[in-house]
Amino acid sequence: MRAGAPVLVLVLACAALGGCGSATATPHRVAAWKIEAPYFAPPEPTAPVRAPAARTRPTPAPAPAAAPVDTGAPTDAEVRAELKSAFGKDSARSIDSAGLTSAGLATPPPTAPNKLVAIIQAANAVARKPYVYGGGHGRFAGEIFSDSAYDCSGSVSYALAAAGLLDSPMDSSALARFGKPGPGKWVTIFANGGHAWMTVAGLRFDTSGRDRSGSRWQADGRGTAGFTVRHPPGL
């Protein structure tokens, strides 16, 4: 081949390539891409959700039967009946009668109501106090009845006031008009213009007996002539 032959070959190759865009070349169709709808995988099947079961409270065990309730202390009538059964026919006198200690103080009977107990306890507080005319009728240290000595009506007034039966001391004449007429079941007051004393559950509370035993409480009685007989309401 001649020296110029490679040049000719190159020219012919370029001409052949140039025919790709010439009007005389066979047209080439380009197929369109087929675009499909996007694919979404179906959700995974899941177990059905159940509503939570309602919580039920356990049935409580039945409560044990309650023990019978104590209604309180027995009545006076019940105590009287029991003591009568225990002590016999003389029990009525013994259970309603106050006792007397060797020190000259009274002890309430087992059937004594609260007011009677208060009277006996207050009378004990002044039973051995000295006798002074007018004692127990003044006001001392801001307290009515508080005194170092008591006369007859002052000591009776002190005991009655402890049960809420008096608001202020009474002299013997006033005590002759106090309460209701006649003897009481538990307390009986004997009074006139010059003296006053009382019986409490069978014992005598009297200043006149103090000179003999040192206490106003006495187991024996005394004459009642010339005295008005009264008693506190309810006693």
Short précis:
The chain has 235 residues and is an alpha+beta fold.
What do these coordinates show?
This protein has 235 residues and is of the alpha+beta class. The chain has seven helices and ten strands. It has helices at residues 5-18, 76-87, 91-95, 114-126, 152-162, 172-175, 210-213; strands at residues 99-100, 106-107, 139-140, 143-144, 180-181, 187-191, 196-200, 203-205, 217-218, 228-231. The strands form three sheets. The protein has a six-stranded antiparallel sheet with strand order 5-10-6-7-8-9. The longest helix has 14 residues, at 5-18. The termini are far apart.
How is this fold's topology laid out?
Blueprint: H1 5-18, H2 76-87, H3 91-95, E1 99-100, E2 106-107, H4 114-126, E3 139-140, E4 143-144, H5 152-162, H6 172-175, E5 180-181, E6 187-191, E7 196-200, E8 203-205, H7 210-213, E9 217-218, E10 228-231
Antiparallel strand pairs: 1-2, 3-4, 5-10, 6-7, 6-10, 7-8, 8-9
Structural category: alpha+beta
Low-confidence residue ranges: 1-26
Q: What is the average per-residue confidence, as pLDDT, rounded to a whole number?
A: 78
**What percent of the residues sit in helical stretches (DSSP H or I)?**
25-40%
